[in-house]
Design brief:
The protein has helices at about 40-45, 60-70, 75, 105-110, 185-205, 235-255, 295-300, 325-335, 350-355, and strands spanning about 5-10, 15-20, 50-55, 115-120, 140-145, 160-165, 165-170, 210-215, 265-270, 300-305, 315-320, 320-325, 360-365, 370-375, 380-385, 390-395, 405. By secondary structure, it is an alpha/beta fold. Its cofactor is Ca(2+).
């Protein structure tokens, strides 16, 4: 998924980018040989790469819920292990979604004076009670689900697109996607929405938080006409190139407006590249095994870049073990807010790692069948479930599998 998170107090703005279903190996900065992501590579050279950064799940919805709540999917209700999986994907025929009992990042930021906007895919429920404007966002342009379809409007309708509370059209009908050619102008629309929102908030000196959550790299993959056929990597590469171009334009816009040094940007993914749609519509997870829908490294380990000119030393590389849940706690720390004290928060504050290059110890945490933790330079992570409550362990400094742990329940 793609997301741009922007938070601003009177003199501070924070932006974070969170991409849909891109693999660890999809960026030139992470070793992709065709080097077709010059803007993201420049972002990395001007900021900090995180080599050991993880999604909260190998699926879209649980990772998004974890990002916005700072909590494991098994705590926030988005888990996929048994009959309770009603909140796993939230497609049209699933009626679950984010619960009112969860406190989302924009809800906390709103209390601090922020204007909050989501652009793109929400994926935390499509019924009215789950609407993003009921969970802290002030504005929304996008869809509750992926751009699956087209449907016949009898058994299932085409997925709707919203501006705030109003449905303004549907995919394939009003927002065209050509499945044969892959042409769609959605990324350009989402880009313009982001640029306009940033300009409006900067002009009014309004603190803001922008969550940019586009889905061009999710099958069926799409790109605009200008980018189609331009990549050595097929249609998926075309989509990546357009996303890269969009990120570059957003960063340049921040610089043009004179707020880049007050703006924190974070780029990552909600799960690994989907190999099930490869080779034509799937990405690269680099050297890591498997991809989306698995808890192997390829499904969970994500590209991640932090950018904050004048604050983050350029060209940094961190081996801090991080998670999308950490963006919740880190974002609050950036604006001087404390996380809720009435519930378990699993995300940690990454600012010491980002600004000072420190390695932060974190306890063992279970993430939908994946465990990770570190103590100093020693880290522990699993590559998969091998049975119910059974883990197969690998470690950063261990060259081979070190054993089986039986009957471990991590949460």
């Amino acid at each position: 998924m793609s997301s741009l998170l922007c938070m601003c107090l009177s003199t501070f703005t924070s932006c974070g980018v969170f991409f849909l279903q891109m693999g660890w190996g999809d960026l030139g900065a992470f070793g992709e040989p065709s080097k077709e992501t010059p803007n993201l590579d420049q972002m990395a050279s001007e900021g900090m790469l995180f080599l050991d950064f993880y999604a909260a799940s190998p699926l879209c919805s649980p990772s998004r819920a974890a990002l916005l709540t700072g909590r494991l999917p098994v705590r926030n209700g988005f888990y996929t292990t048994n009959a309770h999986a009603r909140n796993a994907y939230t497609p049209q025929d699933i009626v679950g979604g984010i619960q009112d009992s969860e406190i989302l990042l924009p809800e906390l930021l709103k209390k601090a004076g922020y204007t909050n906007k989501i652009i793109g895919k929400w994926h935390l429920g499509h019924r009215p009670q789950f609407h993003p404007l009921k969970h802290g966002f002030d504005e929304w342009f996008g869809s509750p689900n992926c751009h699956f379809g087209p449907y016949d409007n009898r058994a299932l309708p085409n997925i709707p697109v919203y501006r705030d509370w109003e449905m303004i059209g549907r995919y394939y009908e009003d927002f065209k996607i050509d499945l044969k050619t892959g042409e769609a102008n959605l990324t350009q629309i989402y880009l313009q929405e982001a640029l306009d929102f940033i300009s409006k908030q900067q002009a009014s000196q309004q603190p803001f938080f922008l969550y940019w959550a586009i889905d061009a790299t999710h099958a069926p993959v799409y790109a605009s006409k200008h980018f189609l056929g331009t990549s050595q990597r097929g249609r998926y590469g075309d989509a990546v190139r357009e996303i890269d171009d969009s990120v570059g334009k957003i960063l340049k816009h921040l610089q043009k407006l004179g707020i880049s040094e007050n703006t924190f940007v974070f780029f990552t993914s909600d799960n690994g590249a989907a190999l099930i749609s490869a080779p034509k519509q799937g990405g690269s997870n680099g050297p890591f095994l498997c991809g989306k829908q698995t808890t192997f490294e390829g499904g969970m380990r994500e590209p991640a870049i932090a950018w904050w000119p004048g604050h983050i030393p350029a060209g940094g590389v961190s081996r801090q073990l991080g998670s999308v849940m950490d963006l919740f706690t880190t974002s609050l720390s950036l604006v001087g807010l404390q996380p809720p004290s009435d519930r378990q928060i699993d995300g940690i504050d990454l600012l010491p790692a980002i600004l000072q290059g420190k390695l932060i110890d974190r306890g063992l945490a279970g993430i939908l069948g994946t465990a990770y933790g570190n103590k100093g330079d020693k880290s522990l992570r699993t590559v998969a479930w091998v049975g119910e409550n059974t883990l197969f362990i690998t470690g950063k400094n261990i060259q081979e599998y070190i054993g089986w742990l039986q009957n471990i329940i991590l949460v």
